[in-house]
Amino acid sequence: MKIGIIGGGSIGLLMASILAGHNNEITLYVRRVEQMETINKNGITIFPNKETYKVRSLLLDDIDLSDEMLLVCVKQYQLTDIYPFLLNSTCPLIFLQNGMGHIEDIQDFNFTNDVLLATSEHGAIRESDSIVRHTGKGHISIASLSGISSILDEIHSLLVNEDFPIKIEGDWFTMLARKLVINAVINPITAIFQVENGEIIKNPYLKKLSEQLCKEVCSVLQVDSLEHWNRVVSVASNTQNNHSSMKVDVFKRRRTEIDGILGYILKQGEVNFPYTSFAYNSIKALEWNYKQEVNLK
Questions:
Q1: pTM of the model
Q2: Beta 131-136 vs 44-47: how paired, if at all?
Q3: Which domains does the chain have, with CATH numbers?
Q4: What residues are annotated to the active site?
Q5: Of 2, 3, 10, 54, nearest in space to 254 by CA
Q6: Domain Ketopantoate reductase N-terminal, which positions (predicted)?
Q7: CB 245 within 8 Å of CB 190
Q8: What sign for the dihedral angle of Cα 32, 38, 44, 48?
Q9: Residues forming beta bridges with residue 139, ordered by sequence position
């Protein structure tokens, strides 16, 4: 299958390498010429297996209209810049982002394509422009946002393999809400305090903060807080030595996805949520601080 993957970050590199390893024709679309040239020369290497896969890489301006599917793996705040590149495509579009702040924008864009949403339980860290470390194996969940829902079964049959398990979901909101609660709790707490995932259940004070934050997020989403807290605890335990993407973004002084995660929650809530406000404003304060550092240089 001819698959285009947009985004050369950790998830984009991971998806490209896994799918390329199962006889798919992969094109990875990136922004920088340097990354494109590196991938075209060296392929993509995935650790810890130390396997290298040949993948074609092109710039976003050169999206191949013959792609049979486009998997959009950029950060949520980068989507606005990506939408214009998708205008002439006719194949199914799969958006794989954290949070839910982008859904209304996707709906407003009125794509004529079949539009699918996805979440990933895989862990990955980009170590260079062409090297990705697979830190935790999981599955991909996919649900239909618009278009023909039968396309889900087609994609499942074409893509699923032992390295790429896919779960078809009947309701996109339930699917995204499940992942949003996990991201809304683990990501900001680990980022603010610069700790590994497991610390939110090992440290009694961080555990209390995390549990209260979970209750507020679940209240807004109108989902069962105990069920979702148990899921957060399970994920934090299973990935206890991992570093959340937001923790890494803050450590490397990059923009985070906090607006699409807790920013979305605050916009939906009709009352004050102190723990959510604390976590959101703490991340925004950190972002503001390192922006000031850049401006002072």
A1: 0.91
A2: parallel
A3: 2-170 (3.40.50.720), 174-287 (1.10.1040.10)
A4: 179
A5: 10
A6: 3-146
A7: no
A8: negative
A9: none
